[in-house]
Amino acid sequence: MGKEYTLLEAPLPKPTSEAYASARILEALAEARLALKFLNEGLTRNAAGKVFQAWRALLAALLRLELDKLMRRVKSEEERKWLSERAVPRLPTTRLKVLSQLLEKIGHTSISAWTDKALNLHDYQNHGPDPDLALSKYRSREEAAYDIIALASEIIRRVEQLKARLAWSDEHERELEMLKRELRESLQGEIKQ
């Protein structure tokens, strides 16, 4: 593995620390960049998996950043305990919809629709294109590629909105710029096809 990807192998800070959200944002940027790199190399299923991981990392960061608001929003002590002890550190795929809906209720507009797109891409990673639409929502590589690019673009947009709330480093800025460059290449590739 090249030096540029070593940050993906570093241990995450504890979910209770402020550094956790910054680390997960850095992970989201790196995973999204890898997704676009894979897409540009024709590895669409791998790209779908990586952009899903990027979205999941972004959601983990948002859950940590918004934990106080979310704790006030849920009704029971059991739900609060689950949020802090399970949702933030583990972010179970089976609960991404409901967690996105919670984030939407506190002001993260359209995040549940984007989570649905990420989950569809997760299915595509596992099942590939499916002309019958039984196992995957995508009939072709091109349909999936379009959503991979769209989700990577949305990650950039949301990260740029969060910069002021994070411990933003030169590494974050570098990763964001590399992701934008990879996105431009992906968009140029789509135009050529």
Task: Please describe what this structure looks like.
The chain has 193 residues and is mainly α. The protein has one domain. It has eight helices and no strands. The longest helix is centred in the last third of the chain and has 23 residues. It starts with 18 loop residues before the first helix and ends with a helix.
Features:
PaREP1, 193 residues, PaREP1 family protein, 8 helices, mainly alpha
Shape: globular
Q: Give the N-to-C terminal Cα separation.
A: 31 Å
Radius of gyration: 17 Å
Largest sheet: none
Uncertain runs are: none
Mean pLDDT: 92
- Element order: H for helix, E for strand: HHHHHHHH
Count of domain modules: 1
Question: What structural class should be given to the helix and strand makeup?
Answer: mainly alpha
- The number of helical runs is 8
* Helical coverage, percent range: over 70%
Strand content: under 5%
Number of strands: 0
